[in-house]
Amino acid sequence: MTRLAICPGSFDPITYGHLDIIERGAKIFDEVIVAVFNNQSKAPLFSVEERMELIKESTRHIPNVTVDSSAGLLIEYADQKNAQVILRGLRAVSDFEYEMQITAMNRKLDNKIETLFMMTNNQYSFLSSSIVKEVAKYKADVMDLVPSVVAEALKKKYNHK
């Protein structure tokens, strides 16, 4: 049986913190599906299709990673894909409380699928897509925070030369 993990998120845009979790997860699982979900409480900068393309470009070097999207419940998506694990990255203790709520609900809905929390590398513990967008908006250099394809996409979105 293939060990399959779903790595869900809004990825608006994907950062090196996300990539850290994806790359390390790909070493543990036979297959990792990076699943783009639309968080209704956020106004995304990039469309789902744009985010998927940025993730595909950023994970091209990882052969056992695929990219997909879903508009439904994560736990239903994981079940449809026959995933055993939901892989979630944690940056700080503040992430843990929110993630525990989500995990408890997912467990209530389907207790066959486990959630694995992985701490991101310390150098990315401050990093979020929101912070990246905020500094990119004001023309700050984000090359050490996101893959180059993402940095270029941010420049285009904000009409920076």
UniProtKB/TrEMBL annotation:
<feature type="domain" description="Cytidyltransferase-like">
    <location>
        <begin position="6"/>
        <end position="134"/>
    </location>
</feature>
<protein>
    <recommendedName>
        <fullName>Phosphopantetheine adenylyltransferase</fullName>
        <ecNumber>2.7.7.3</ecNumber>
    </recommendedName>
</protein>
<feature type="binding site">
    <location>
        <position position="42"/>
    </location>
    <ligand>
        <name>substrate</name>
    </ligand>
</feature>
<keyword id="KW-0548">Nucleotidyltransferase</keyword>
<dbReference type="GO" id="GO:0004595">
    <property type="term" value="F:pantetheine-phosphate adenylyltransferase activity"/>
</dbReference>
<dbReference type="InterPro" id="IPR014729">
    <property type="entry name" value="Rossmann-like_a/b/a_fold"/>
</dbReference>
<dbReference type="Pfam" id="PF01467">
    <property type="entry name" value="CTP_transf_like"/>
</dbReference>
<keyword id="KW-0067">ATP-binding</keyword>
<feature type="binding site">
    <location>
        <position position="88"/>
    </location>
    <ligand>
        <name>substrate</name>
    </ligand>
</feature>
<feature type="site" description="Transition state stabilizer">
    <location>
        <position position="18"/>
    </location>
</feature>
<keyword id="KW-0547">Nucleotide-binding</keyword>
<comment type="pathway">
    <text>Cofactor biosynthesis; coenzyme A biosynthesis; CoA from (R)-pantothenate: step 4/5.</text>
</comment>
<keyword id="KW-0460">Magnesium</keyword>
<feature type="binding site">
    <location>
        <begin position="10"/>
        <end position="11"/>
    </location>
    <ligand>
        <name>ATP</name>
    </ligand>
</feature>
<feature type="binding site">
    <location>
        <position position="99"/>
    </location>
    <ligand>
        <name>ATP</name>
    </ligand>
</feature>
<keyword id="KW-0808">Transferase</keyword>
<dbReference type="InterPro" id="IPR001980">
    <property type="entry name" value="PPAT"/>
</dbReference>
<comment type="function">
    <text>Reversibly transfers an adenylyl group from ATP to 4'-phosphopantetheine, yielding dephospho-CoA (dPCoA) and pyrophosphate.</text>
</comment>
<feature type="binding site">
    <location>
        <begin position="89"/>
        <end position="91"/>
    </location>
    <ligand>
        <name>ATP</name>
    </ligand>
</feature>
<comment type="subunit">
    <text>Homohexamer.</text>
</comment>
<feature type="binding site">
    <location>
        <position position="10"/>
    </location>
    <ligand>
        <name>substrate</name>
    </ligand>
</feature>
<dbReference type="InterPro" id="IPR004821">
    <property type="entry name" value="Cyt_trans-like"/>
</dbReference>
<comment type="similarity">
    <text>Belongs to the bacterial CoaD family.</text>
</comment>
<keyword id="KW-0173">Coenzyme A biosynthesis</keyword>
<keyword id="KW-0963">Cytoplasm</keyword>
<feature type="binding site">
    <location>
        <position position="18"/>
    </location>
    <ligand>
        <name>ATP</name>
    </ligand>
</feature>
<feature type="binding site">
    <location>
        <begin position="124"/>
        <end position="130"/>
    </location>
    <ligand>
        <name>ATP</name>
    </ligand>
</feature>
<feature type="binding site">
    <location>
        <position position="74"/>
    </location>
    <ligand>
        <name>substrate</name>
    </ligand>
</feature>
